[in-house]
Design brief:
This protein is an alpha+beta fold and 402 residues long. It has one domain: Cysteine proteinases (Cathepsin B, Chain A, Alpha-Beta Complex), CATH 3.90.70. Helix content is 29%, strand content 24%. Strands 5, 11, 15, 16, 17, 18, 19 and 20 form an eight-stranded mixed beta sheet that branches. A four-stranded antiparallel beta sheet has the order 4-3-10-7, covered by helices on one side. A hairpin with a 2-residue loop joins strand 16 and strand 17. It comes from Mastacembelus armatus (zig-zag eel). This is Ubiquitin carboxyl-terminal hydrolase. Its EC number is 3.4.19.12. Pfam families: UCH (PF00443).
Length: 402
């Protein structure tokens, strides 16, 4: 099991050999360091590292009273490499110049991320972040017994995106007829229209495109709709064994459904409400794929939680079978999990994250950060999964206009 303790090997070089006579001037300008000076220098480095009890990115977040759901998501985002670097390098401030509103949320998020990666303390308080942006902590969070990490994630990403949106003047809304285009071309046109209004680092990383196909069972007419998504809410497949795979859940999400009775939509060709079939597929894969396992359900009687064990891969999750275009690369590696233990009325959130600097897995439980084995990452408490697209063997993946 990996340890928080770091080891260092110091090699002290021999005394430098005498320089040739014709290099006397150089010898006078660059006096050699003594062995004692070298040892003192290296020992100073070792002592300074030893004082840092929390290596980079291994800093906990104190619970401010029922804020474990927030802490869990913040740790997952802090371990998202490109988002972390966006904050550490203060690149976000360039995009803030375009902000039409108060950009305090992005600044607080960047400051918190910087503290998580530079603090020498074992834990820090997210009090400024917790109190400052009231839209993120609305009544739906504060009044519920079981704060929802997935809802908080959506609100946070949306808030951050609004403040670093590079679009300063939205084009006029135009109604275009895309029905004559192929699905692939229609998807590209819809994506470019989306980027004309929504273009930020958050979009670059987290937003994908979902394709919804609707087919009339009477006339056979098929229509397609393309929508951007921040995450995918995946139903948990139920099997008698009590254990399912992540692909089982994705297949349930993308399987063909029948819309009948009161759910019948209006067919564009028949001009009447018809029985139709509906199916989802992924038109454009995001660089960061967030999968929300739908463990909680509400009914008129009581709220319930599914504790089904979902077996998900840590590496090489290949999603090409769920792609609208089979040629698109869609292989992902897991790097973070937001967990929920407890029931629908209450519980506790934690996070498991693969530290991008150290390459090892750690458990983030509010103030406590501890090393863990990769074999411990899967559990029946897994709630929100964070996957990163693996780079193409031929070229680095980049999010761009299609």
């Amino acid at each position: 099991m990996p340890s928080l303790r770091q080891s260092y090997t110091v090699t002290v070089p021999e005394e430098p050999a005498a320089l040739p006579l014709d290099k006397a001037d150089l010898r006078r300008k660059s006096p050699s360091l003594s062995r004692s000076m070298l040892v003192s220098t290296f020992m100073g480095l070792i002592i300074n590292q030893a004082k840092n009890k929390s290596p980079q990115g291994l800093v906990g977040l104190r619970n401010l009273g029922n804020t474990c759901f927030m802490n869990s998501i913040l740790q997952c985002l802090s371990n998202t490499p490109e988002l972390r670097d966006y904050c550490l390098r203060n690149t976000h401030r360039t995009d803030l110049n375009n902000c039409r509103t108060n950009a305090a949320l992005m600044e607080e998020f960047a400051k918190l991320t910087q503290n998580l990666w530079t603090s020498v303390n074992e834990s820090i308080s997210p009090s400024d972040f917790r109190i400052f942006p009231p839209p993120i902590f609305n009544s739906s969070h504060l009044n519920s017994l079981n704060q929802d990490a997935q809802e908080f994630l959506r609100c946070l990403l949306d808030g951050l995106h609004n403040e670093v949106n590079r679009v300063t003047a939205c084009p006029k809304v135009s109604i275009k007829d895309f029905d004559h285009l192929s699905d692939d071309e229609k998807g590209k046109q819809m994506w470019n229209m989306y980027l004309e209004r929504e273009d930020s680092k958050v979009v670059d990383l987290f937003v994908g495109q979902l394709k919804s196909s609707l087919t009339c069972t009477v006339c056979g007419f098929r229509s397609t709709v393309f929508d951007p998504f921040w995450d995918l809410s995946i139903p948990i497949s139920q099997k008698s064994s009590g254990e399912v795979t992540l692909k089982d859940c994705l297949r349930l999400f993308t399987k063909e459904d029948v819309l009948d009775g009161d759910d019948r939509p209006t067919c564009k060709k028949c001009k009447a409400r018809r029985k139709c079939t509906k199916r989802f597929s992924i038109q454009k894969f995001p660089q960061i794929l967030v999968l929300h396992l739908k463990r909680f359900s509400d009914s008129n009687i009581r709220a319930t939680k599914l504790s089904t064990y979902v077996n998900f891969p840590l590496k090489e999750l290949d999603l090409r079978e769920f792609s609208s275009e089979s040629s698109e690369r869609a292989v992902y590696n897991l790097y973070a999990v937001s967990n929920h233990c407890g029931n629908a009325l209450g519980g506790h959130y934690t996070a498991y994250c693969r530290n991008p600097a150290l390459g090892e897995w750690y458990s983030y439980n509010d103030s406590r950060v501890s090393p863990m084995s990769s074999s411990q990452v899967r559990s029946s408490n897994a709630y929100v999964l964070f996957y990163e697209l693996t780079p193409s063997p031929h070229s680095k993946y980049q999010t761009c206009r299609l």
